[in-house]
Design goal:
This protein is α/β, with parallel strands linked by helices. About 50% of the residues lie in helices and about 15% in strands. It contains 10 helices and 10 strands. Strands 1, 2, 3, 4, 5, 6, 9 and 10 form an 8-stranded mixed beta sheet that branches. A two-stranded antiparallel sheet has the order 7-8. The longest helix has about 35 residues, at about 15-45. The two termini are about 15 Å apart. Residues about 1-35 have low confidence and may be disordered.
Length: about 325
């Protein structure tokens, strides 16, 4: 059994609490500093001469610089501050990368190639934050037919995994809840690169949409990307798989392409740690669903999950070594 989750944590619970307070104080101070600077600037414009305004602004700029330095100092020292700061930057930059090329996407709506520019930008920014990925098993990809691509789900950083896979898988698309569509302008970008939106509250509607996409798997050689666990997991074992993607695979008699990502040892949500880390994405050989029926789905699910679990344990152990992390039993 993999012991990948038992690693040395940099902070104890008490230090984590102190770090959380430090983050709040730092950002609150910085925010109030900005607000005070704006209010003072507005007042002095009404009551002072231009020379006095310049002198006052010099003093205010010095205060603002001091607050910025204090916030930077705390972020540098506090793992909790770095954790929130890095995630904020990642989410903000991901949205910018997604919506920036929208004008270009309008020329070819619902085309998977619209996501290529955001994908390359996301990979580059992930490396800047310290989240680097190595892709193995590219020889197992067959772009001459469609299929179902299954990946284990750990964090919002899985966006980088999607970005790594998008250019090499071929005609790809993902499934998202319909609420994402209304998150303008991000939802528009998702629609333009072919995201499949489903209503999770309406099973008939969701099944109808996915069955329509199942036809595209055969007709357009499309690759439908799923996180079969349905939610994020960061333990030593993968969470139980949902049946939906397996129904699509059997319905379309398509291939299943398992993709396993090593555990994010550099990322600890409970301890609020976001360090640098090297990670492994491994594309496994395809599993054929030809000749299978709905009665075969439970056995198919068990087979694929065991395959991915075994690889997950091996890759996570290797990742420990690559990142020079010691285990704690």
């Amino acid at each position: 059994m993999c012991a990948a989750g038992r690693v040395i944590a940099a902070d104890s619970s008490s230090s984590s609490s102190c770090s959380s307070v430090s983050v709040v104080v730092a950002f609150a101070s910085f925010g109030f500093g900005l607000l005070g600077f704006r209010n003072r600037l507005h007042r002095v414009k009404e009551t002072m001469s231009s020379e006095e305004i310049v002198d006052k602004m010099t003093t205010s700029n010095g205060e603002l610089l001091g607050l910025a330095f204090m916030a930077f100092f705390i972020i540098t020292l506090s793992s909790t501050a770095r954790y929130y700061f890095k995630f904020f930057c990642f989410i903000a930059f991901s949205v910018v990368c997604a919506v920036g090329p929208v004008p270009l996407m309008l020329f070819r709506p619902r085309d998977y190639r619209n996501a290529l520019i955001p994908a390359y930008l996301c990979i580059g920014f992930g490396k800047m934050l310290g989240a680097s990925f190595t892709v193995r098993g590219k020889e197992n990809i067959n772009r001459n037919h469609g299929g179902i691509v299954l990946m284990n789900h750990q964090s919002a950083l899985d966006l980088i995994v999607l970005a790594e896979l998008w250019p090499i898988m071929g005609r790809s698309t993902v499934v998202a809840k319909k609420e994402v569509l209304y998150m303008f302008p991000f939802g528009l970008a998702c629609w333009l690169w072919g995201t499949l939106f489903i209503d999770r509250q309406n099973r008939d509607s969701a099944k109808s949409v996915i069955n329509k996409e199942a036809k595209a798997i055969n007709e357009k050689q499309a690759k439908l990307l799923f996180f079969p666990e349905g939610t994020r997991g960061n333990g030593d074992k993968l969470l139980p798989f949902k049946k939906g993607c397996f129904h699509v695979a059997v319905e379309s008699q398509a291939f299943i392409q398992p993709v396993v990502i090593s555990k994010y040892h550099f990322l600890k949500s409970k301890a609020k740690i976001f360090n640098r880390g090297q990670n492994i994405i491994k594309i496994l050989p395809e599993v054929s669903c030809a000749g299978l029926s709905k009665d075969d789905i439970p056995a198919l699910m068990e087979r694929v999950q065991k395959m991915m679990q075994r690889e997950y344990e091996q890759l996570s152990e290797e990742s420990l070594s690559i990142n020079n992390i010691s285990e704690v039993h």
